[in-house]
Amino acid sequence: MHGISRSLINFLILSSAASAAPAQTQGKSFKVQRRQVPGSSTPNGAAALGRAYRKYGWTLPEALGNSKIQAPKVLAAGKEDEEGTVKATPEEGDASFLSPIKVGGQTLMMNFDTGSSDLWVFNTKLQEQQTQGHTVFDPSKSKTFKPMQGASFEIHYGDSSAASGIVGTDTVDIGGAIVDNQAVEMPTTITDSFAEDVNSDGLLGLAFGKINTVEPQKQKTFFENVQASLDKPVFTANLRHATVGSYEFGRIDDSQFKGSITYTPVDTSQGFWQIESKSYAVGDGSKQTNPNASPAIMDTGTSLILADDAVVRSYWRQVKGAQMEEQGVTFPCDSDLPDFHLALGPTYMATIPGELMSFQKLGRGLCFGGMQSNQGQPLQIYGDVLFKAQFTVFDGGNQAVGFAPHK
Question: What is the distance of C-alpha 73 from the center of its chain?
Fold first, then answer.
């Protein structure tokens, strides 16, 4: 177990509208564990697909727009152990894993999301009916909360769901690593669909600060604030299927993957961990080129893989009884699923075992596919279906991502 306890990474705020900055470092790496809790709840494939479309502002297919996305029950928060390691609990079976963090000393179950750059929390400024099922942050009970005068944020999704509100700074503690004066966004207005679209107490964005939504000055993410104080300017996603997994900041644990890490450069122009992904293979078949491949975003906040339509069709054509419909790909649960091989950068081919290509049992012998179509959108989104097969390094120092198969 590699972590820190009783060790603080302290930061000083530059101004009321500026990001936190490091002041003193005593510990240089930390880990946030997450694990599967048997019997938590059943994953919802249509809901996961709908969330991904909303997140990236894509127009929802009518069949998905009519799918009710339930606000799942939030489980009790984990507790920090003596090594500064915290446990994380999945909200929807294997669909969405949550990790406890402390904001102003208050524990919230958060989604660690490499596909966004805002740290926002359900809070007491919202109407009570909009916070049901969530633990809410109460700034009046924090001794370290400070309003950020004149600052606001606003998030809009493609289906008109939205959240907007005020911004403050507070002490954020993740696994015993502490950033003082971290920007924390608190919605005061939120659409019902936005609330239903979230299965946690908030979100910890880990993409690049250029897509942070705070105005008049964008704010740095937790990782950007802590990065310079780490042993290595990296964090890793060691996410597993139905077993313990973790995020680790500042260290690459060689015991968790096979072989060596293969890195590929990231295009940060859009604020994402974005790479090229231009080829694939199905089962024992030959490598195929996707001639019009869209760039791919590495997104731990999305459950599924959303790939170009040609890639999706090529894979599911090899599965007996698979059907591609507007509300998603389904297939008979007793069908054999071939492994899927996916290019991550120009040289590395990741293998996703066939068993991970099934996301949800729908009933009546049908299952929901773990890879779905992006419906012609200009991005591919690679979510937890990929990460459950691949140990992933997010290298902020070199602006690259690295991959290796799990041990």
Answer: 19
Is the pLDDT at 352 greater than 50? The verdict is yes
Find the helix or strand (DSSP H, E) in which 306 lies.
Answer: strand 305-307
Query: Does residue 140 come out as left (phi exceeding 0), alpha (psi in the -120 to 50 range) or beta?
Result: alpha
What type of residue sits at position 149?
Answer: Q
Dist CA 115 CA 112 (whole Å):
9
Tens-digit pLDDT profile for residues 76-117: 233 333 223 334 444 444 555 688 899 999 999 888 999 999
The answer to whether residues 166 and 149 touch, using CB atoms and an 8 Å cutoff, is: no
- Are 167 and 186 in contact, with CB atoms under 8 Å apart? yes
Write down the pLDDT at residue 198.
56
Note the pLDDT tens digit of each residue in 365-383: 999 999 999 999 999 999 9
Catalytic residues: 113, 299
CB neighbours of residue 244 within 10 Å: 13
